[in-house]
Amino acid sequence: MINVLRYVAGVLLGAVIVSAAAAELRGTGDLGIVVERASGSVAVVDTSKRSVLGRIQGLGDLSHASAVFSRDQRFAFVFGRDGGLSKIDLLKMTVAKRVLQAGNSIGGAISDDGALVAVSNYEPGGVRVFDADTLTPVADIPAIGAGGKTSKTVGLVDLPGRRFAYALYDAGEIWVADFSQGDTPRLTKLAGIGRLPYDGNVTPDGRHYLAGLFGEDGVVHVDMWKEPLAAKRILNGYGRGEEPLPVYKMPHLEGWAATSDALLLPAVGRHELIAVDPRRFDEVGRVATYGQPVFAVARPDGRHVWVNFAHPLNDTIDVVDVPTLNVVHRFKAGPAVLHLEFTPRGHEVWVSVRDADRVQIYDTATFAKKAELDVASPSGIFFSARANRIGQ
Amino acid sequence: MIAGHAAAGEVPDTSRLSHLVRQECGSCHGLALTGGLGAPLTPDRLARWDREQVAAIILDGIPGSPMPPWRALISEGDARWIADVLKRGTLP
User: Fold this and answer.
1) Sign of CA dihedral A181, A183, A189, A194
2) How far, in Å, CA of A304 to CA of A259, rounded?
3) Residue B45 belongs to a domain
4) Whole-model pTM?
5) Which CATH code of 2.130.10.10, 3.40.50.720, 2.60.120.230, 1.10.1200.10 fits the domain covering A101-247?
6) For B44-61, what is the mean pLDDT?
């Protein structure tokens, strides 16, 4: 009898603790997620306290995963390699909705009104668009280029006016899907832009879309404010005819370094960043880097750009001073630095060090390490402040 | 070279190679090797090539495509071991 009472008291006490926790109010503006690449989970993190709040499991194959956020910054939409689209609740730390929408996907975007989530697919190619509340299908846009070839899609971003832009990898095209008139998109197709666009991104004002080419020395520029849209080649022959170095990992333009002075783009097959004038889109300089750049991410104020590198030089980070285009800090962060993300106003930066099973947090003014978090095989880091940025 | 080459006749460091294939090859071909920007590396997809051909692609890449030559980072013995386990589907 006493045991039973003790049991009942224990259950009641437990219930009180649970309801107290549930009643604790908190905002989501300083939250984020870190993708745990090997285990199909994400760690939900608090960037103010530099802590892991919990984990959300069951998100499938996250070997190449990215995320965007709902306008209220409560939900993240996680795009998995296996075609899984998961809507996760950062407060309840649960999977709110999940669909397997394709065989193999690469990334996605959310429309400016927060209503549509678009996913970029490798298999079967094309882009699929879903209702952000329910994840029910809204539109399916196969990517069949002018040559009749089905294409993988890359570089999918949102544009102002309920639009998305993306590139067709196999077909060499850039398409804009306009949902401003409803759920049936109006497509603008720019064909013949160049060989193998491997990624694309748009400037933070949503105006200039750039796609990097793998098959040619050059970058494609589309000014989204100029009707009719036209694709222009910039940085032609940036390799100067030299034999490219092997590229052991594709550079990413996601999170690229767009600052008021220059855009810093990874050169393909070269241990360099190319500095591009943000109005004229011609080259204004080069930065010799430690290795083949993968991510070149501007601190939100634009003064510095942090760069990580492809295997086997992926243990190092370079910090580039934008006004002088000098590497002002180079350090070994650890084995396999995969990604980095700044806090919204850039006072700290979080760095995924995959083979150390750690996320490391640095002060961006002093470069001092401020904290380390245990995260299993971490890759992409995404903070909820992305909800408020164009082209994320 | 940090990774270290297995000289001819030397036993490949299978745990290092397995990690390399999953993580570094996986960045294009998928962690599960079922494909990404690069083609799937599943036994059925590789059946059209023999072991030496797969090893040659690993070592020398495919010019004009994003597949890079890995010769500077791994030995011929390493490449043959990778070709074998991929063709058999027995990557540890």
Assistant:
1) positive
2) 9
3) yes
4) 0.91
5) 2.130.10.10
6) 96
Number of neighbours of residue B56 by Cβ within 10 angstroms: 18
pLDDT in tens, A52-85: 999 999 999 888 889 999 999 999 999 998 889 9
How many CB atoms within 10 Å of residue B80? 18
Q: Looking at the predicted complex, does its ipTM rise above 0.90?
A: no
Kindly determine whether residue A250 and residue B37, on different chains, have CB atoms separated by under 8 Å: yes
Beta carbons of A354 and B23 less than 8 Å apart: yes
For residue A85, the cross-strand partners are A79, A99
* Bridge partners, A129 (sequence order): A118, A139
Which segments of chain A have a pLDDT < 50?
1-2, 14-20
B76: closest CA of chain A, how far (Å): 17
Domain count along chain B: 1
| Residues in chain A closer than 8 A to B28 (CB atoms) | 249-250
Q: Helix B51-60 vs helix B76-88: angle between axes, to the nearest 10 degrees?
A: 130
Give domain status of residue B70, yes or no. Answer: yes
B2 occurs within a structural domain: no
- What pLDDT, on the 0 to 100 scale, is given for residue A238? 87
Find the domain containing B64 and state its range: 14-88
